[in-house]
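can u do me a favor
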């Protein structure tokens, strides 16, 4: 049940952020502290962040430096 509540909260918070609501207002609606909500948002974004394609570093393509391209 606890995991389900966390998933529901993340979905609500993600939807509210996508619709342009600020974190401070969301903390009032969710009855949590600002620090807790910032941590939740940070964790949410880290999990949902797209991973760069294989063979890249920080979104930049690594080039062949031996001159045989």
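np, heres the sequence
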């Amino acid at each position: 049940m606890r995991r389900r509540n966390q998933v529901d909260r993340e979905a609500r918070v993600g939807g509210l952020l996508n619709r342009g609501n600020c974190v401070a207002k969301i903390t009032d609606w969710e009855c949590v502290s600002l620090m807790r909500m910032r941590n939740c948002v940070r964790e949410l974004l880290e999990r949902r962040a797209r991973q760069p394609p294989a063979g890249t570093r920080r979104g930049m393509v690594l080039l062949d430096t031996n001159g045989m391209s």
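The first strand starts at residue 56 and ends at 57. hope that helps!!
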